Amino acid sequence: MSYPVLPYAKFLFLCCVLLSGQVATAAAASRLDEKVDAYVKQEMAKYHIPGMAIAVIRNGKALKLKGYGLASIELNVPVTERSVFQIYSTTKIFTGVALMKLVEEGKLTLETPVTDLIQGLPDEWKAIRIRNLLTHTSGLAELRENPRFQSLPDEKKKYFPREEGMRYVAEMPLKFKPGEKFLYHTSGYNILGLIVGKVAGTPFDSFLQERVFAPLGMASTIFGDTESIIKGRPSTVYLLDKGELRNLVLTFNVNGGNPGAGLNSSVTDLANFMIALDAGKVLKPESLREMWSPVKLNDGSEYGYGLGWTVGEHKGRQVVGHEGGGAAWIAHFPQEHLSIVVLCNLNGARADEIQYGLADLYLRS
Question: For residues 203 and 217, what is the distance between their CA atoms, to the nearest angstrom?
């Protein structure tokens, strides 16, 4: 059988059309890249941010991984896509993932009472479920509110044993009935770390390392506060005080991993995590939907927080994620398969504004 051969002129025309399309796409990508760089530098100047790294992931591909400014002003060390930053409360998304892994394995449910998993707790805690701890609806008081804890020497407070801290919290009455309202707190997340350890038979930090970080090649993701020595992370985190940059020391108990605020990571690691999560390689799709659904309170109303993730909308699009100290933010648009990661070394930087500004640039493209 013979096939018609395209005349040379027609073949050449088709090649030109394809090539021109590729050139136009490359030119558009280059213009977008320039807009992103200009926007980031503008925001860094606006908020006096010394250093920042960003990741943009779309449809399973990292479109941009880049560092800007200085990781260390003192040593003139530039930020790269592999620079390590503290991610503060953004840690909570990994706590949510850890609990959902245990749910998928049938080792507990979101409705399992805390008192079924930890012995010796007050009777009024019987109404507190795993879901309540993850969604900040447990009604628990904070450890720091206990007068006995307040009377301790500062040095002992810094690295107070987590299980002992739970007992101190148990001495105080609930602030409201579980599920009645949302009240952001850390006590519940510390207890979740203990629960993961008891149910999984391994410390919370080891569980995440073995089940999430190592399989995804997240070698730079590790627990530690500002006093910890973390490979790839300068020792300094900055604070803007009356217009001047100063060093910030923020200590907290990281023994066994701090489930509410203890992680450090890079945009490269977090990009790998978001690519795998969006592809269903970390949790099942039904687990993601559960994790990214707003909590329903006792009166039937909803609040924009899921299982370790904030849940909301941006210009009519669903967006989930979490902030950390104003210096870190992960935002994910599930329907668009778009993720934005912003990490800064300035405590209190407006990472929330920056990540939405970046998202707008890519959602328009």
Answer: 20
d(CA 239, CA 350): 13
Q: What is the domain count for the chain? A: 1
Whole-number Å distance between alpha carbons of 66 and 290: 32
Q: Give the tens place of pLDDT for each residue, 35-49.
A: 999 999 999 999 999
* CA dihedral for 97, 208, 324, 180, sign (positive or negative): positive
Q: Tell me how far apart the alpha carbons of residues 169 and 145 are, in angstroms, rounded to a whole number.
A: 8
In a domain, 27, yes or no: no
Domain residue limits at 159: 36-363
- Could you read off the pLDDT of 141-182 as tens digits, one per residue? 999 999 999 999 988 887 888 899 999 999 999 999 999 999
- Bridge partners (DSSP) listed for residue 332: 320, 339
Can you give the pTM of this predicted structure? 0.90
CATH code at position 122: 3.40.710.10
Distance CA 138, CA 179 (A): 6
Strands 346-347 and 237-241: parallel
* Digit-coded pLDDT (tens) for 276-305: 999 999 999 999 999 999 999 999 999 999
15 is a domain residue: no
Tell the residue number behind the tokens 């096939």, with chain if given: 3
Residue with tokens 């592809």: 279
